[in-house]
């Protein structure tokens, strides 16, 4: 292992020195395969602030998250988003004309429905007088949809907002090459046969080469998986550590699914097919089987594989967010308060996936609480290596002092409170929809486990990140 890490570190000009600060101590997850016992209800201060409206999530749903290329493969993104909106309407019985605004997040946009929020809303039967817009912020697009809705309510512009997200990786837009597009546009403008023939004479076979959606960072030309591999090496996170964590995620997700804890999932009757009722990416394996997989990015010495990475996923989610007084006036019992949140950005090359590390201390300070106050952690799992590297960074005074400008570390989340019902590695990660799943998982866990505060955090392409505090609504 030492020689492998040495080889890898030679390709890490800016991060290799991190490894000298992080021991290769095991981060065993094998003892954490059982969900934590229900927490005792604690008496803590509320995070309500004077002269600021309390904003609540009444409820949230998602259609089952499916591996791309399966039951949703013949649909379009607005079909999935419409199904999530319809599921939310059925779950909450909210009158459609009460909703003031609809916001959806997405990443890879279908060109025919560039404002997928609007098309899905119309398809779900919302009034054509209800404004809707679409946002994109990579893997935290749904987070941005939610916080944009929070801003609309906090400012008094709206009382009721529906926020959500959607992604359909089964069908992504593939373009003609730029040369071909340019020729086609010029042909469309040509007025004479001579002009058309002149343009056609310039055609070359290589014009037909298609352009696929970019899988690499535009600013660095590096794939996220490659970044995850380098990050795991820099923080001395072993292949076994990563596989154990992935097995934990799948095992806890399977347990939660079997026990009916994933209550945010609503069935979806796929046109022409059977009704889908549950996520299909939850597949607990064994460490022996996982160890057989070859590295997916840095070959042959990398540690990131298909087994310890999130998979391409189709899915959609939606949440009903209200001003507390409006929700109570309508007879609702909210699930949780949506409290402080922050967005962060850092170096997109060497710190691409460290958003949770940077966002967590900021949001805790903003809310006036500490890590020990958090009862339920819900972090986005892009890769096992990403999660474990964040744990090590969060637990390092050296990293806090040298990279974050902080005197002390924030501390890593205790595993017994962390992603107890599975995470993106097992449940799936539709890029634009995951943020709502995280918040609803935190809210539902707080109700089930008797906790008061939840912390949601996620990394995103471009070196960005998000964190939010969720507070359980009093029973």
Overview in brief:
By secondary structure, the protein is of the alpha+beta class.
Describe the protein's architecture and organization:
With 475 residues, the chain is α+β, with helices and mostly antiparallel strands. 34% of the residues lie in helices and 15% in strands. The protein is built from 16 helices and 12 strands. Strands 1, 2, 3, 4, 5, 8, 9, 10, 11 and 12 form a 10-stranded mixed beta sheet that branches. A two-stranded antiparallel sheet has the order 6-7. α4 links the parallel β3 (101-105) and β4. The chain is globular. It starts with a helix and ends with a strand. The relative contact order is 0.20.
Protein topology:
Layout: H1 2-9, H2 16-19, E1 55-62, E2 66-67, H3 77-92, E3 101-105, H4 116-123, E4 132-135, H5 141-154, E5 160-167, H6 178-189, H7 193-200, H8 224-234, H9 239-258, E6 268-269, E7 275-276, H10 287-291, E8 313-323, H11 324-329, E9 336-345, H12 355-367, E10 376-379, H13 384-394, H14 397-403, H15 424-427, H16 434-449, E11 453-460, E12 464-472
Parallel strand pairs: 3-4, 3-5, 10-11
Antiparallel strand pairs: 1-8, 1-9, 2-8, 5-8, 6-7, 9-12, 11-12
Helix pairs in contact: 3-4, 8-13, 12-13
């Amino acid at each position: 292992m030492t020689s492998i890490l040495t080889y890898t570190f030679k390709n890490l000009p800016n991060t290799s020195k991190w490894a000298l600060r992080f021991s290769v101590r095991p981060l065993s997850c094998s003892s954490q395969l059982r969900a934590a016992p229900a927490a005792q209800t604690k008496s803590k201060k509320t995070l309500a602030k004077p002269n600021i409206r309390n904003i609540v999530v009444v409820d949230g749903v998602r259609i089952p998250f499916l591996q791309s290329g399966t039951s949703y493969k013949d649909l379009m993104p607005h079909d999935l988003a419409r199904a999530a909106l319809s599921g939310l309407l059925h779950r909450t019985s909210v009158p459609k004309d009460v909703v003031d605004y609809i916001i959806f997040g997405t990443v890879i946009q279908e060109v025919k429905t560039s404002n997928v929020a609007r098309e899905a809303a119309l398809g779900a039967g919302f009034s054509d007088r209800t404004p809707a817009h679409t946002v994109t912020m990579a893997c935290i697009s749904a987070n941005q949809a939610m916080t944009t809705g929070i801003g609309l309510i906090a400012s008094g512009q709206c009382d009721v907002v529906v926020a959500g997200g959607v992604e359909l990786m089964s069908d992504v837009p593939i373009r003609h090459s730029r040369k071909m597009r340019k020729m086609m546009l010029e042909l469309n403008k040509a007025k004479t046969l001579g002009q058309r023939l002149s343009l056609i004479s310039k055609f070359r076979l290589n014009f037909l080469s298609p352009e696929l959606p970019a899988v690499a960072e535009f600013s660095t030309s590096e794939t996220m998986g490659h970044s995850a591999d380098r990050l795991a090496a820099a923080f001395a996170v072993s292949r076994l550590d990563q596989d154990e964590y992935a097995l934990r995620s799948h095992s806890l997700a399977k347990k939660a699914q079997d026990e009916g804890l994933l209550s945010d999932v609503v069935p979806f009757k796929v046109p022409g097919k059977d009704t889908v009722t549950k996520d299909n990416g939850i597949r607990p394996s064994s460490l022996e089987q996982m160890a057989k997989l070859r590295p997916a990015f840095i070959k042959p010495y990398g540690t990131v594989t298909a087994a310890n990475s999130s998979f391409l996923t189709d899915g959609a989610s939606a949440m009903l967010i209200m001003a507390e007084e409006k929700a109570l006036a309508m007879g609702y019992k909210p699930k949780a308060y949506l409290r402080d949140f922050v967005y962060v950005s850092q170096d997109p090359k060497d710190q691409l996936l460290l958003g949770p590390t940077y966002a967590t201390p900021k949001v805790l300070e903003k809310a006036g609480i500490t890590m020990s106050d958090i009862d339920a952690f819900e972090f986005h799992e892009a890769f096992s290596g990403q999660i474990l590297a964040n744990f090590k960074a969060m637990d390092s005074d050296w990293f806090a002092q040298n990279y974050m400008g902080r005197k002390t570390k924030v501390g890593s989340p205790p595993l017994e409170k962390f992603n107890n019902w599975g995470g993106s590695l097992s449940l799936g990660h539709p890029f634009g929809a995951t943020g709502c799943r995280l918040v609803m998982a935190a809210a539902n866990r707080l109700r089930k486990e008797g906790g008061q505060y939840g912390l949601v955090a996620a990394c995103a392409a471009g070196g960005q990140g998000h964190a939010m505090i969720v507070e359980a609504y009093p029973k």
